[in-house]
Amino acid sequence: MANSYIASPSLGVLVALAIAIHNIPEEFAMAVPIIMVKKRRFLYMAAFLSGLAEPLGTVIGLVAVHINPAFNPVFMAFAAGAMVFVSVHELLPMARRYHKTQLFVLGTLISVFVYMLLAAMVPE
């Protein structure tokens, strides 16, 4: 997120909004199984550690881009590629296994639509 802000402040705002929207279902997906086993301490610790990943990555990315600004587009491309890889490698086979491929496609289309809305809301 910070590296996208370095590239363009409007891109940084767009990425921040996208990450915020993404984190809502992600945290529910992480919390539901833990709540079911009723281990609150573990839930809080897992949520805390999960929440540290983004700030830690931000600091590492900012330091690296400060040292060499040419890293910025590489980091942004890597992050985008990682998300595409996870979607195709993990979610698509799962959708096929449960015979819900159409929901995967629908979710992909909705996410593209949400991104387009966010991009339209953030001035360049």
Structure description:
This protein is mainly α and 124 residues long. The protein has one domain (2-121). It is built from five helices and no strands. The longest helix is centred in the N-terminal third of the chain and has 28 residues, at 9-36. The chain is globular and about 45 Å long. The chain starts with a helix and ends with a helix.
Q: What amount of the residues lies in strands?
A: under 5%
End-to-end separation: 16 Å
Sheet/helix structural class: mainly alpha
Rounded to an integer, what's the Rg over CA atoms?
Answer: 17 Å
Low-confidence stretches: none
Number of helices: 5
Number of strands: 0
Shape designation: globular
The total number of structural domains is 1
Average predicted local confidence, pLDDT = 82
Q: What can be said about the biggest beta sheet?
A: none
Write the layout of secondary structure elements.
Elements: H1 2-7, H2 9-36, H3 40-67, H4 71-97, H5 101-121
Helix pairs in contact: 2-3, 2-5, 4-5
Compact overview of the structure:
It is built from 5 helices and no strands.
What tags apply to this protein structure?
124 residues; mainly alpha
